[in-house]
Amino acid sequence: QVQVAESGGGLVQPGGSLRLSCAASGNFQAINVMGWHRQVPGKQRELVATITKSGTTNYANSVKGRFTISADNTKNTVTLEMNSLKPEDTAVYYCNVRAFSGDDWRPYWGQGTQVTVSS
Burial level of 87, CB count in 10 A (0-12/13-18/19+)? Predict the structure, then answer.
């Protein structure tokens, strides 16, 4: 089993900043990608940012220049620094890791953390 746990969501005013953190734990042999997705009620979950084990990052166009993803491979953690937040960033943010557990690579998801951007 692989457990993924997020923390750091909350309420922030437009223009403010938040940091989301995520840690993977449990029985796995390796992780090759970690990332963040978000979902608004009634809409599909969308990719926010990902980072590979080698450090290659990928961002949604809507967050480029405002969000920064980083990872600590020794601790199996990933962080999302969110700056210049906008009301449209309001969503439940989910951490996702792709881990090798047992006999195959599989995606594992956290429970999600709410981010609300409002004045």
Answer: exposed
